Every structure is written in structure tokens, then in C-alpha cells.
Sequence to fold (202 residues):
Amino acid sequence: MWVTGVSGAGKSTVCGELRARGHVALDADNDGFSRWVGRTEGEIVVDPPDPVPEGWLDRYGWAIVRERVEALAEKSRSRIAFLCGSVENEEDVRDLFDLVVCLVIDEDTLRHRLATRTTNTFGRHPEELAAALKWNPRMRAIYESRGAMVIDASAPVNEVVDTVIAAARELTGSPETGKPEGVCRDHGTPLLDWRRIGDLNS
Fold:
């Protein structure tokens, strides 16, 4: 299952709670699934600046490595796995998931979380904040149109995680989340490209 949402929606927090409850849950940002890639030459940035400088999002994209997701899918054929993240090249891996869940929040909550969180600096730079705020209102409509399940992540984390787990149980047809046949089916989730947010409004 792919758990996605705008930066600050609570993906990492949900991932941590899923792990605490004994589920296989991986953070695409922190567990080696994603990386910065040059938009022109495709070079991989090994040691990116933190925070990123002005113009960074124009020169580099946050991309997931398909081979890593394929390996996870192969290892997860006997139990469901949750992969939590948000990347620009999501269309490159969307066929590897049985279900996509999108976490959505209101703007005030987004601003507060980006300004106060201590686990990730993304959103502190004005360019990053502007991108997140511009993308946020489009999340629900786009993901609903693509067949994803949308969850209000402004609710307490326990409630959000309960809903995510319930979706997984419905997917497997079992009261437990340990009996899926894998994590591969196309749910048509969109390419997330911060440069083309305006194009995604249709």
C-alpha cells in the first residue's frame, strides 16, 4: 500500500505508528527509496544541502527508485507492506501497489506542521513552503479522481492509522493485514511534479 500526501500531511508519523503496531511500514524518504535527481542530466545528489537553497526545486526532483519498490513488492507477497512518501515520479511505480491512500489536511494545519516539526526541514524554505501550499488544495480532488482512498489526516494520529489499517483489511478481505497476494496493481495515481502544479488543476 502506498501512503502519500503533501509534505507535512503526516506520512512519517503514520509510518512510525504502523511500525509501533507491528506492521511492515517503510518511509520512502528516510529508508533509502527516494533521492534528489538532476532534472537536466539525471545526476544523483549524494549529499544534498539542508535546507535546500533557492531554485533547488527547479534544478532537482525528488524521485523514487523503482528497483527498491520492486524488491519490497517481492518480499511482501505473504503480508501487506505500507510504503509512505511523496515523489515526483510516482507514475513510475504506481503499478506496484494494490491500494493508494492519500492523506489530506487543511492549510492552517499544514503551515503549523511545516513550521514546527523537528524530523524534517522541508517546508522551512519559502520556495518549499510555497510549493506545498500550492499543491495542498489539489490533493483531494486529484487523488479521488484517480481512485485513491482519501483520509483526513488532521484527525488524531491513532484515528488516521486506524483508517489506514481498515483500508488494508478491506483490501485483503481479512480481519488481519497479513494475507495479501502482493502489492501490484495500477490505481492511476498522478505524477507529482512541483514545477507543473498548475497543469494538474484540470
